[in-house]
Amino acid sequence: MTDSPVVRLEKDGDIGVIIVNYPPVNALGPGVADGIIECLNTAIADASIKAMVLMGDGRSFIAGADIRGFDANRKRLPIGERTYDVMDRSPKPVVAAIHGFALGGGLENAMGCHYRIAVPSAKVGLPEVLIGILPGGGGTQRLPRLAGVQTALEMIVSGRHVPAPEAKTLGILDEVLPEGADLRASAVAYARKIADARPLPRIRDRDCKADPSVFEAMRKSIARRARNQKAPYNCIAAVEAAATLPFDLGMQREQELFLELVNADEAKALRYAFFAEREAAKLPDMPATARARDLNNAAVVGAGTMGGGIAMSFADFGYDVKIMDATQEALDRGMARIKSNYETSVKRGSLKEDEMQRRFARIHPVAGYDDIKDCDVVIEAVFEEMDVKKPIFAKLDEVMKPGALMFSNTSALDIDQIANMTRRPQDIAGTHFFSPANVMKLFEVVRGSKSSPETLVTAMALGKRIGKISAMAGNTDGFVANRSRAPFNAEMVILLEEGCLPEQVDKAMVDFGYPMGPFAVGDLAGLDIGAAGRRRRAAQDPNYRKLPIADKLVELGRYGQKTGAGWYKYEKGDRTPYPDPEVAKIISDVAAELGVARKTFTDMEILRRLLFSSVNEACRILEEGKAYRASDIDVMWLHGFGFPRYRGGLMYWADGIGVRDVYNQIASWHQQYGSRWAPSRLLRELAESGTSFRDAKPAPFR
Ligand code: 3H9
After folding, report:
1. Which fold is adopted by the domain 7-263?
2. Is the CB of 278 under 6 A from ligand 1?
């Protein structure tokens, strides 16, 4: 019947079926909202149609407004005339039939409908806050009326995707279909069933009341997490409007609050981060024929902290995984640690007991190599020493079935040396998980010189399957994430020599937006780990900048939280870092020995000293062709190091300052401090040509 390129109206007897077809996820791109309106109007005018169904073609219902449209259209909303108004005045019922995702403007459209049904695997949500805005199509006014103010607040402020069965319990869906049901046929039958029911249930007509204290309580509960951000607070204010104003005035308030956000720096940075993550998944130099292989069974070698966390990542996403270690005792210890980690989540209330049991049951401890030899993929996660890893790969080469992929979880070691222990280096790559492996999202795929395209594409896909954000790194010391971070780690200790205290540096970084300061993170991870890396690098490089304060702490057995003292001191059973006068004394003694004059630093100076050093190294990484794009480095900083997402990432943040200013500052520190601040060639070229970091053209990937 009606035919626009992106929305069509078909007739199924007396039911009009409106189908959105805007691949890949049916975002409300150009013509979609207009197409829905046109189809609704046609169906309303057609006397032979008694009711309508709204659904999506392909893999989803509607994933929301077209986020790319926000930048192009500064003042107007991206969706033109409102579909919801047409539904509200429709004399015939409309049923939303949901599969895949109904997010943002997608759920808003579904809530404009009179009824909502979904398949069990569908997810609904209002995730706008995650891109720095609020639901601007009535979501903040309709969801509280449909599901209650408390639920709406929680969903809109967190942006979480709610599975269909839960959405039914919350009152968002009228019906969840049985597993395997045909959505279109069921929706048409449903529409036929309610076609004559009157009055039509419009969400706008429902009451919305709340105790005013819930809004204040919500503001308080997000204060730490949402610091420096505006969107979460505007979300709360918009829901508050739903509870205090008539519907149409609430809609106006929602608009005002939306327009305050849509082109603010926060939203721009978050949109950038969203697309940077999707870009990171793309490997531009791989042949189109390289396809991800099916990986049906996986194994982890090494049941230590990392191996256990990796196994949990598989189990958490529904995959069975085998795990082995050199001795039964180590394996038992590893399994006990996994169990205790899960139990902690249950105690904290973030995991249900039965779900914990299901996950734990997916992790299968096995006695040895014979039990894993038929796996499609094995991830080695033993101690971070070349001499420990090499024989394991020689053994894996001996036992694993042909075609099995073998990945090493390493944070810095040369993947080629590891691959060369086998007769099949094409099947080997690095997969660098960040600690704790079941929590941190970054999954750095390290490309060996002989890794095959298929191996790499499969590794990237594997990361996505277990809930990670995959990004490709070249085989260089520290790969991309840790290598770009290394100068920051050195600079933060050098700042102590020059006059800072750990607590001052930590406060500056937390105020900037990091969840924890870098010294507190060091204490959590263990200072002995960094010390081993420093020893290795010092042995390789006579010009290596030593960090005597850090070395001194390790010498004194101050390894961090695990020894009750590190950069801070800790009371038994308490993870709060307390500033320690002993550390202040060590710092001033070392500074005196080195003859460094101590001065005071502003927060801005601290921030720039730490981050500019890493920007310079990131440029070196790009000029050497060890990363595809500056935005990949941003993704790594967001998901590996807790860089505040609403600042986009390291390189995006530096672009906000300006390449030339960054270069000038680095050049001046080069004069002052010598070689460690030598500007990279790429940085100098970008500054001279006025090109942003985002537009930098890295060398071809090597
Ligand atoms: C909104 O609705 C505002 C309203 O309140 C109205 C205001 C007036 N726009 O993630 P994937 C692209 S705000 C444009 O890899 P998945 C994505 O870039 C919106 N493009 O797939 C990628 O492109 P490419 C609220 C979008 O299966 C491709 O689709 N909604 C959009 O892993 C595949 O994406 C959201 O915030 C979009 N909205 O995950 C939802 N969505 O292939 C945002 C996706 O070129 N989207 N693309 O790289 C998502 O969370 C995920 O994409 C989704 C699918 C869960 C839907």
Report:
1. 2-enoyl-CoA Hydratase; Chain A, domain 1 (3.90.226)
2. yes
